[in-house]
Design a protein that fits this description.
- The chain is of the alpha/beta class.
- It has helices at about 10-20, 75-90, 115-130, 140-155, 175-180, 185-210, 215-220, 225-235, 240-250, 310-325, and strands spanning about 35-40, 45-50, 65, 90-95, 135-140, 165-170, 260-265, 285-290.
- It has 2 domains: about 10-175 and about 250-325, Rossmann fold (3-Layer(aba) Sandwich), CATH 3.40.50.1820; about 185-250, no CATH class.
- The protein contains 10 helices and 8 strands.
- A hairpin with a 5-residue loop joins strand 1 (about 35-40) and strand 2.
- It starts with 11 loop residues before the first helix and ends in an 8-residue tail after the last helix.
Length: about 325
C-alpha cells in the first residue's frame, strides 16, 4: 500500500482521531442499510446490516463482508467507506455486528472478544450458504484479529467459505496492543473513550444476569487489562487477561493460513506498536503484509481538509477483489 499522509495531518494520533470525526466517508450517498436479525445457536441474536446491492439473497456477484472493531458498528467511518466502495463496484456488502454493538443489548451472558473466531465462522458460513458468487471478508482492528484467527483455525477448509480475507489496523499481538493503549496519551484518550461505552454495557449485562461478575471491581477498572480481567476473559472461557490475550492473538499462528490474506498496519498506529509487527518471512506464503509508515489507527486520510477515508477501503477492497478475479476497475 503506497500511502502518504496529508501534510496537514502529521502523526499517528491526528491520523487516527481526525478521520474518525471529520473526514469524508462516501463519494456517493451514505449507505442505506437493510437490517436482518439472526437467531444464534445458543439462543441469542446478532444484527447484520446489508448495503451495496438491490438484488435478493443468492446473488452471483461478489459479497464483501466487514467485521467492525471494538465498539464499532455499521455506522463507523470505515464501515461507511467500505460500503461506498462496494456500491461503486456493484458488490453486495454486509456488516455483521458483534453482540451488543447494534444498539440493543444481546440476551446471553457472552459478549464478544478479539479472538471470537467461532462467531466469525458461524456468520461467514451463513452468508456463504446464501451467496452463489465469491465471498471476501475484511476485519477492522479487533474484527481483523478475530477474522485472521478464523482463517488460522480453518486452515485448508477456509477456501470453501471465503476466497480471501484482510485485516486492517488489527492488534494481532494483543499483549503489545494492551501495553500501548494503557500508557500516556493513549490511556487518557482512547482507553477512557472505550471504557465510557464498555462499562455501561457490562453493567446492563450484570442487571440482566445477576452475579455475572464483581460490580465494584468493574467500576474501578482503569484500563482494558483490568476490564478484560473482570469481564471479557472470564465470560468467554479464559483464565484471565493474560490467557485471553495470549490465546486470542493472531500473530503466532499466521503461518497456518491457507487462503490469500492481507494484513495492513500503519507503523505509527498508536494502538499497535511497530516493534510488535511481524516480518514477511514470519507469516507464511499466503499472507501479505502492508506496513506503511503513516496512517494511524484505521485512519489513512487523503486529500485537502477535511480529507476523505476512502484510501484504505479502495486499496484493501481492490486487493480482495483481485483475489477472486475482479480487477481494480470492474466489478
Amino acid at each position: 500500500m503506497n500511502y502518504t499522509a496529508p501534510w496537514w495531518l502529521p502523526g499517528g494520533n491526528l491520523q487516527t482521531i481526525w478521520p474518525a470525526l471529520y473526514s469524508r466517508r462516501a463519494f456517493g450517498p451514505h449507505p442505506a442499510y437493510r437490517r436482518e436479525r439472526w437467531d444464534t445457536p445458543d439462543g441469542d441474536f446478532i444484527d447484520v446490516d446489508f448495503a451495496g446491492t438491490s438484488q435478493p439473497p443468492g446473488q452471483s456477484q461478489v459479497m464483501l463482508v466487514m467485521f467492525h472493531g471494538l465498539e464499532g458498528s455499521s455506522s463507523s467511518h470505515y464501515a461507511e467507506a467500505f460500503a461506498d466502495f462496494a456500491r461503486e463496484r456493484g458488490f453486495a456488502f454486509a456488516v455483521p455486528h458483534f453482540r451488543g454493538c447494534s444498539g440493543e443489548l444481546n440476551r446471553a451472558p457472552r459478549a464478544y472478544h478479539s479472538g471470537d473466531y467461532e462467531e466469525i465462522g458461524w456468520v461467514l458460513q451463513r452468508l456463504r450458504d446464501r451467496q452463489t458468487g465469491p465471498l471476501i471478508a475484511v476485519g477492522v482492528s479487533l474484527g481483523g484479529n478475530a477474522l485472521l484467527r478464523w482463517a488460522e483455525e480453518m486452515g485448508d477448509a477456509a477456501s470453501r467459505v471465503a476466497t480471501a480475507v484482510a485485516a486492517v489496523s488489527s492488534p494481532i499481538d494483543l499483549a503489545a496492543g494492551g501495553w500501548a493503549i494503557g500508557r500516556g496519551f493513549n490511556r487518557l484518550v482512547y482507553t477512557r473513550m472505550f471504557l465510557q461505552t464498555m462499562k455501561p454495557k457490562a453493567l446492563a449485562k450484570l442487571a440482566q444476569h445477576p452475579g455475572l461478575f464483581d460490580r465494584d471491581a468493574l467500576l474501578a477498572a482503569r484500563n482494558l487489562y483490568e476490564f478484560d480481567n473482570i469481564f471479557t476473559a472470564p465470560l468467554h472461557g479464559f483464565k484471565g487477561t493474560e490467557d485471553y490475550w495470549a490465546r486470542a492473538s493472531a500473530k503466532p499462528h499466521l503461518q497456518r493460513i491457507r487462503i490469500p490474506a492481507l494484513v495492513v498496519n500503519a507503523r505509527n498506529d498508536p494502538f499497535v506498536p511497530a516493534w510488535s509487527l511481524p516480518a514477511q518471512n514470519e507469516v507464511g506464503d499466503h499472507v501479505i503484509l502492508w506496513q506503511p509508515a503513516h496512517g494511524g489507527h484505521v485512519g489513512f486520510p487523503l486529500g485537502t481538509m477535511p480529507g476523505h477515508v476512502r484510501a484504505m477501503p479502495d486499496a484493501v477492497g481492490n486487493w480482495l477483489a483481485a483475489q477472486c478475479g475482479k480487477d481494480s476497475t470492474h466489478g
